[in-house]
């Protein structure tokens, strides 16, 4: 299973006012890498910024690695090839149950939850010049970009489109690449699943006119009835192309860690992340939801003991049966 080279590496910074170096560091790694997804997507922006933040404050060099997204991250963290990763609950459940298309039959149960990230909305983007303003407008046989192979979008959005009666040709690629193909008229639609604002969509609407397409009442109900998602509203302020809120569906994301990582290391990372939300929001606006109150959105992964200790110390109860 191959991943691309590490794209962002951060080392302990002397510019940080008060890095935390006084902990029990028994067993701590010299460095760490977090599995993200393709460039142009929220995972890479969030993951690389978060890795830098942790490295600066804990004095352990770290960085982000481009991967195929949640499914591959689950596999890489389970095997220990990467110690940290980002995933959505749907791919997380399939991987835990041994239903990952990357390794059928392998139950990836050495992956533990660390903290809540944000919801991933599923939304459709087309050029305004296409005349596509609704999912029902997507022409028969349209070419749709679903993101990197094995990503959350690629895993679920094709099935959603089929459920809504859309007949399409499938295209995979990084979000940046698919955005370029859409702008050049090489594909008809991009079906995005990423935290908002999606960097590739923000870049697109600077360069051309786009339609960001939501779901009707009937479409949203049909999807929530058939998939592990809930209704979600993209605020109009998210993109300059929206003049009113856009109703879609979404799935929760969590940061995860190999269950064998030292408890004290995971505790300090969780503490740092959960107690400095303002700094996290400066990395990516989607981190507005990276708050401890959302810990209960995890109903899939066991909790790492280090993460669970921080939540339990701060009034967010995680039962012993849910801790690895």
TrEMBL record:
Q: Where is the signal peptide?
A: 1-22
SUPFAM superfamilies xref list:
Periplasmic binding protein-like II
**In its keyword annotation, does this UniProt entry include Signal?**
yes
Q: In its keyword annotation, does this UniProt entry include Nucleus? A: no
Tell me the domain of life. Bacteria
> Which keywords has UniProt assigned to this entry?
Signal
InterPro entries in the record: TRAP_TAXI (IPR011852)
NCBIfam families of this UniProt entry?
Answer: TRAP_TAXI
Spell out the protein name for this chain: TRAP transporter solute receptor, TAXI family
Organism in which the protein naturally occurs: Marinobacter antarcticus
Lineage, top ranks: Bacteria, Pseudomonadati, Pseudomonadota, Gammaproteobacteria, Pseudomonadales
């Amino acid at each position: 299973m191959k991943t691309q080279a590490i794209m962002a590496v951060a080392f302990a910074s002397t510019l940080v006012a008060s890095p935390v170096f006084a902990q029990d560091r028994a067993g701590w790694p010299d460095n760490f890498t977090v599995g993200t997804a393709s460039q142009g997507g929220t995972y890479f922006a969030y993951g690389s910024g978060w890795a830098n933040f942790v490295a600066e404050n804990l004095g352990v060099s770290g960085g982000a690695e481009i991967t195929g997204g949640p499914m591959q991250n689950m596999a890489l963290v389970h095997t220990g090839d990467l110690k940290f990763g980002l995933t959505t609950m749907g791919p997380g459940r399939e991987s835990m149950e041994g239903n990952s298309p990357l390794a059928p039959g392998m139950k990836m149960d050495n992956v533990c939850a660390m903290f809540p990230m944000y919801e991933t909305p599923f939304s459709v983007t087309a050029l305004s010049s296409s005349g596509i303003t609704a999912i029902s407008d997507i022409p028969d046989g349209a070419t749709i970009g679903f993101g990197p192979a094995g990503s959350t979008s690629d895993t679920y959005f094709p099935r959603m489109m089929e459920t809504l009666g859309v007949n399409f040709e499938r295209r995979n690629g990084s979000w940046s690449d698919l955005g370029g193909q859409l702008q050049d008229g090489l594909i008809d639609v991009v079906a995005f699943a990423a935290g908002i604002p999606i960097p590739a969509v923000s870049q697109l609407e600077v360069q051309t006119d786009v339609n960001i397409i939501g779901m009707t009442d009937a479409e949203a109900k049909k999807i929530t009835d058939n998939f592990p998602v809930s209704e979600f509203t993209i605020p109009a302020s998210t993109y300059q192309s929206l003049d009113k809120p856009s109703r879609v569906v979404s799935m929760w994301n969590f940061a995860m860690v190999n269950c064998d990582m030292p408890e004290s290391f995971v505790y300090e990372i969780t503490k740092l992340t959960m107690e400095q939300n303002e700094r996290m929001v400066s990395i990516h606006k989607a981190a507005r939801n990276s708050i401890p109150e959302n810990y209960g959105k995890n109903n899939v992964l066991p909790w790492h003991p280090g993460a669970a200790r921080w939540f339990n110390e701060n009034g967010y109860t995680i039962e012993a049966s849910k801790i690895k």
